[in-house]
């Protein structure tokens, strides 16, 4: 594919992610922090987010599976998840975490289980989208092009 | 390019238990030409600061960014509020209670907007309270705090006001990592500093320093244009 065509798809795809609320301005901040001296910054941070999220989702499933649910522990996990999703701009995951925490406060196991499913779903969705976006980035770089900047979203 | 800006850079110690946030803060600060050390807990921060009760030793083997000096004076501590073990608030208190450390400006970050928490931190001596995630616009607010203490320390410890000029000149020469964003940051910063200058003109040193800042951004920018052509 032509570099310009790849760059156009990159812009369209990213705009879509912002429009549909998968990503917010914080992701633009990450993109702004990526430059020639740090060409893999977004990739590194997003990869850390994936690792973190997989671990947290696993821990949450275990914690909610106990006879006596430790809501304090669950809240600590969700708090972390909310923090990391907000740091990378995964807006819909963050929103799902906020709802999760209110059920935690109510000590509502059913509510928490429902939220866990929702958080998981939102996470898997944004993960797929981010992976596609990073692939596009790699293709652009491999074709010798520059990653388009998307200042209009910041 | 990028290696020149080592002399007289401000050195920030960033404390956060989240690796993602440490990465983010480190990058944000380095983009603004700060030298950064990150640690994942309040106790490691105190260790890095050389806090052993009364004794202080500013040397450490902790993870230091590549462009480092032998001696690393910390010009500012920025810490997350919510951490397991020692919280950011505890760390703030420890620093402010120490005769050796209390002059280091401390900035607290938190993902939660809890007014009582913010008030408590500011009352305990924090310079700023940032809501996470931290943004480039927040980084601009750090420099004035560091300038104030740097010159305060110079006059107290060395009694050499000439240092001021020396530092200014060196910073003009160090055109390291400048890009367009940097220029925007600098401009925003000068505006901000001018604003704070008019609010606070009884501190002569501070006024002098801030008065110089707008000029300093220009040589950096013209160097950038020369380099990119």
From TrEMBL, chain A:
One annotated GO molecular function: histidine phosphotransfer kinase activity
Q: Which Pfam families has this protein been placed in? A: Hpt (PF01627)
| Any GO CC annotation of this UniProt entry | cytosol
**Which branch of life, at top level?**
Eukaryota
Keywords associated with the record: Cytokinin signaling pathway, Cytoplasm, Nucleus, Phosphoprotein, Two-component regulatory system
Q: Where is the signal peptide?
A: none
Enumerate the spans annotated as HPt domain: 38-143
Q: Positions modified as Phosphohistidine?
A: 79
Subcellular localization is given as: Cytoplasm, Cytosol; Nucleus
A Gene Ontology biological process in which this protein takes part is: cytokinin-activated signaling pathway
Domain annotation text?
Histidine-containing phosphotransfer domain (HPt) contains an active histidine that mediates the phosphotransfer.
PANTHER family in the record: HISTIDINE-CONTAINING PHOSPHOTRANSFER PROTEIN 1, PHOSPHORELAY INTERMEDIATE PROTEIN YPD1
Physiological role: Functions as a two-component phosphorelay mediators between cytokinin sensor histidine kinases and response regulators (B-type ARRs). Plays an important role in propagating cytokinin signal transduction.
| Name listed for the protein in its UniProt record | Histidine-containing phosphotransfer protein
From TrEMBL, chain B:
PANTHER family given in the database record: TWO-COMPONENT RESPONSE REGULATOR, TWO-COMPONENT RESPONSE REGULATOR ARR9
Similarity comment: family membership: Belongs to the ARR family. Type-A subfamily.
Q: Does the keyword Transcription apply?
A: yes
- CDD domains to which the protein is assigned, alphabetical: REC_typeA_ARR
For this UniProt record, the keywords arranged alphabetically read as follows: Cytokinin signaling pathway, Phosphoprotein, Transcription, Transcription regulation, Two-component regulatory system
Region Disordered: list its residue ranges.
150-169, 185-229
Indicate, by first and last residue, each region the UniProt record lists as having compositional bias (Low complexity).
185-198
Instruction: Point to the regions of Basic and acidic residues compositional bias.
Output: 151-166, 202-221
What's its job?
Functions as a response regulator involved in His-to-Asp phosphorelay signal transduction system. Phosphorylation of the Asp residue in the receiver domain activates the ability of the protein to promote the transcription of target genes. Type-A response regulators seem to act as negative regulators of the cytokinin signaling.
Q: Which residues form the Response regulatory domain?
A: 11-147
What biological process terms from GO does the record include?
Answer: cytokinin-activated signaling pathway; phosphorelay signal transduction system
- Write down what this protein is called: Two-component response regulator arr9
Q: Whose protein is this, by species?
A: Salvia divinorum (Maria pastora)
């Amino acid at each position: 594919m032509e570099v310009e065509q790849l760059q156009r798809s990159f812009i369209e795809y990213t705009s879509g992610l912002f429009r549909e609320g998968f990503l917010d301005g914080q992701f633009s901040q990450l993109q702004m922090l990526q430059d020639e001296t740090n060409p893999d910054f977004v990739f590194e941070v997003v990869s850390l987010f994936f690792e973190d999220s997989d671990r947290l989702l696993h821990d949450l499933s275990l914690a909610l599976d106990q006879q006596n649910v430790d809501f304090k522990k669950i809240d600590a996990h969700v708090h972390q998840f909310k923090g990391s999703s907000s740091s990378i701009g995964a807006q819909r995951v963050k929103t799902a975490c906020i709802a999760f925490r209110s059920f935690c406060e109510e000590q509502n196991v059913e509510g928490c289980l429902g939220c866990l499913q929702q958080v998981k779903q939102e996470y898997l969705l944004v993960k797929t989208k981010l992976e596609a976006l990073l692939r596009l980035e790699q293709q652009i770089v491999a074709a010798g092009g520059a990653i388009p900047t998307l200042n209009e979203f910041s | 390019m990028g290696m020149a800006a080592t002399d007289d850079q401000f050195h920030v110690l960033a404390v956060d238990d989240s690796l993602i946030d440490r990465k983010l803060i480190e990058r944000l600060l380095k983009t603004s030409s700060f030298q950064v050390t990150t640690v994942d807990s309040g106790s490691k921060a105190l260790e890095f600061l050389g806090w052993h009760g009364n004794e202080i030793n500013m040397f450490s083997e902790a993870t230091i960014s590549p462009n480092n000096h032998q001696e690393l004076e910390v010009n500012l501590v920025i810490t997350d509020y919510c951490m397991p073990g020692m919280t950011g608030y505890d760390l703030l208190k420890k620093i402010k209670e120490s005769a050796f450390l209390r002059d280091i400006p401390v900035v607290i970050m938190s993902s939660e907007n809890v007014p009582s928490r913010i008030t408590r931190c500011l009352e305990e001596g924090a310079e700023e309270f940032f809501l996470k995630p931290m943004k480039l616009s927040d980084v601009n607010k750090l420099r004035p705090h560091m300038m104030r203490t740097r010159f305060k320390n110079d006059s107290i410890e060395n009694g050499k006001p000439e240092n001021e000029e020396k530092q200014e000149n060196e910073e003009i020469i160090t055109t390291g990592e400048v890009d367009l964003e940097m220029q925007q940051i600098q401009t925003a910063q000068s505006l901000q500093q001018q604003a704070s200058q008019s609010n606070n003109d009884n501190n002569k040193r501070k006024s002098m320093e801030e008065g110089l800042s707008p000029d300093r951004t220009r040589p950096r920018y013209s160097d950038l244009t020369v380099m990119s052509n």
